Amino acid sequence: MSAQILDGNAVAAKIRSELAEEIVELKKEGCSPRLEVILVGDNPASKSYVSMKQKDCTEIGILGQTTHLPASTTEDVLLTLVDRSNKDDNVHGILVQLPLPQHISEAHVIARISPDKDVDGFHPINTGKMVAGSECFLPCTPAGMQELLKEYNINPKGKHVVVVGRSNIVGKPFAIMMMQKKEWANATVTVCHTGSGDLKPFTRQADILVAAAGRPAMITADMIKPGAVVIDVGVNRIDDPQAKRGYRLVGDVDFAAAKEVASAITPVPGGVGPMTRAILLKNTVQSAKKFHTLL
Questions:
Q1: Per annotation, catalytic residue among 56, 97, 118, 232
Q2: Most CB atoms within 10 A, among 20, 169, 284, 285?
């Protein structure tokens, strides 16, 4: 029996619909949520992501402002632009699209964004609050993964969550969120990475297995415990002459084989990706409410 598909598109659409209704009411109170997006350079994937975020904002009534800078932009110019948005009370969320050109320090830029407007959840202050279990903006992808589990009533409490990948964007924060003594968390967590050697002994123990390593189809069916829940965060382009664009997107999990072993699984595309964007919108609305003291 094939696994249940955890449909991120459907859940994200539900979140957007709820936010759209909320924004209508907020605007009656004089609160118009605004997200400032800064894109540096012409990375095709980044341009595509920013375009989708702009479309999402328009759909639900958030004012989405995108500033597109050339790849030659200096770090000082970018930081000055961030400072300007920090000081603008009409801007509630600031997102600098990553990756940045090599001559610009991502750490410097992230640290320059006001923690109160850091709707991506990457600022060191928000990271520290997340570790401490305090209220803060959570990174959008891990928060979206947790929201997806909630929607399908898959409670991590008491379960063994195994995360493959230790990035600051997904692996580390999701592991931290899952080990918190909170609702929809409180799990036992194992984090695997390039220093872990053979992954199979670890992944076979997982009640909830997260693949976030950025390697296509690295998680095979024999690495999954029968009945486990599999969350595939990977988005990898592989050549496919049959595809219209000459390539197709695949995850870090061998989906076709894994869905015959797992009890539930996220597809790629259409799983975690839409949830990431939905949480960005949710964080922006939350920030706007705080700035207008409506919370």
A1: 97
A2: 284
